[in-house]
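Reference record
================
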Amino acid sequence: MTIHSVVIQKLLTTNAHIGRQVTTHHFKQFTYGFRNRQSIIDSDKTLICLRNALNFLSCLSRDPSSSFLFINTNPLFQPIIDEMTSRVTSLSPERASSLWKMRGFLTNSCSPKKFRSRHKKLVFAPTKMPDCVVIFDTERKSSVFLEAERLGIPIVALVDSSMPWEYYKKVTYPIPANDSVQFVYLICNMITKCLMLEKKKDGAKGTGKKATIKDQVESTSESEGSASDEVVVVPYDNLAPMSCADVAESKQLLDKLVVVKYNGALGKNMGFGGPKSLIEVKNGSTPLDLIVNQIQSLNSKYGCNIPLLLMNPKNTHNDIVKALEKYSTLDVDIHPFEQGEHTQHESFVSEGGEDKWQSSKHGAHFLSLMNSGTLDVLLAQGKEYALVVNPDNVAGVVDPKILNHLAQNSIEYCSEVTPTTSTGLINFMASSLQGMFKASDIMNCLDLEDFTSDHSEKSVKGFKFIDTRSLWLNLKAIKRLVDTSALNLDNLSTLKLFENSIGISIPQSRFLPLNSTSDLFLLQSDLYSFTEGMFVRNDARVSPSDPSIALGPEFEKISDFKRRFETIPSIVKLDSLEVNGDVWFGADIVLKGKVVIDASPGLTLRIPGGVVLEDEEINDPTDI
């Protein structure tokens, strides 16, 4: 009999697998089925979540200054909790229980107020915030969840099949199980052994204080010196393709992937009242349609299941949820999440620097989502990789070729970059196996609002690559860093946290930001078409770079943009277009070379349909 079988049998003897008659929708992922009208909790998933929680507590206890707060209101559990807390360093459970009943045990802890209980005893709140809250009895709807969430304190809690979503989503490390006395005894015994084992390790080393993750990273970065500022950039064309013959192997790999998309970018600067994900970019399709169609195509082709997680702030959540109704018949598992006010924007955002090229604003929201307990659920479902899609890039691709490269080479972190037109690296990277570049060679577009299709040579001067802000992440590595709070440390570059990180140089046609109507002009032209949700560049285009488009303020709003073009001109052979003033375009116009159209104030220019403008500068109707 294997060790796993013994552990599962031990769980079964505690009745941890017996759920309630009512099973909430979010808890179904932990259930095995129903028997005698009672839900049966999957013991394998209970074991996985229990290991994750214990690993987190063990990592946290390595810091001698860390503290835990155990919350319990069930009198049957109290002797077990007392025995555990007598053997480990923690806050008194009796004191915590009293403070819990009075509320405000955390948020009032920094004030010198005194609290009086029913028995007329003075009770003071803890003088120090605990590093973790462990809740054994979650049936009673305690304010502990609300206060811990407000203060950013991680929660480890037993959850059952009837726990409401508003409380479940606040648990950082959920342990799905029936809260029987036998199971509480088992988990308390395991917590005690884990914490005592970590304490014994520190004592055996004789160091007194174990180095923290922050100290380890800082010492490593100092010893490595300038080597840590270098990044390996691999050309996309040199990646090994996935084997089309072995569909089963491809399905197994794609089943490990989850796609995450943030929908917080708004289209207000273009006169659009909703999120950019709902702007029609081509033939009535929106950026959200494109990513859903890509996943649908992969699911149908390989028989896999790639879930799509949508992170929506409060101001866009309702619009996104309404738009999802049209996907109800598709074979795509979509989960929208509304981001709360507790999201830590600064936790994953760097302030720049030579070795922080890979940072991204939407990475903070991804980290917040992972801290909410979603990471443990994904790992329990067998997911190992996450693609965090840039919210501004409509040409992002869910690429199995990149995923295959990450899996074969044990890559933990990968950022998609694209060569700048000013460096001449496009041909070089196409023929090179790989290149070692300094992190300062990569332009970190932390805010792409000003980076549009009309970007000039000056804006990218001195850079060899542009960070597209599309990230491929190993979820097990994220789990390791989240458990040790390494991703929350200030002034640490992400490159130094991951054991194996690279950049992949993708074609420029796969980096198409949507920040202005000039970008929209490029997307709606004949230069690009799309199939299965992916933008494809016209083969007739000779130049490797896209034309520079600069439309004046008269075209700034989408409504004005649509009125001024009967149809979008052909721009396959266009180098640059600059339009200013009151200009109107007819149908079937062809633009070539460098075209400048500048209407004087008070003058209306109408470009007739069917004309061909090549290297033209037009200021009045006689120039046409």
Observations:
- The mean pLDDT is 75.
- The first helix runs from residue 3 to 13.
- The radius of gyration is 28 Å.
- The CA atoms of residues 29 and 155 lie 20 Å apart.
